[in-house]
Amino acid sequence: MNIVERVNLLRKLMKDREIDAYIIPSSDPHQSEYVPEHWKSRTFISGFTGSAGTVVVTKDKAGLWTDGRYYIQAEKQLEGSGIKLFKAAQLDVPSFTDWIMDELSDGQCVGFDGRLLSTAKVREMKESFDKKNIKINKKYDFIDEIWKD
Fold this sequence. Notes:
The chain is α/β, with parallel strands linked by helices.
């Protein structure tokens, strides 16, 4: 199964469970940067193998946010995937939270595996999303449903 097929399966799960944007970080439940194979969800869904980055998928767009260590690598690994590279820390590049705020409408829902984001990050997102009445659903590990091997 290629990256486009994986993202399409993710979008089907999102639609079925009324999730309008889904966040896939690089971390594991211990907030490690270098994670065991089981927790390489971001790599599985995007093909990007760098140690740091976050993918966000909506019904018709997808983006990867990573830092300057990985810009060239990410450009090559994302080629043909339909996932746009967002060069974190560059001028005029929104954070993934700001991008979600721009992409979603009042009352829509952001989902993620609640084990993979820190409490501080979830609070920060909630504070931003509350301004636009965007809901958070942290109960789905969609990658586990797609990644069979």
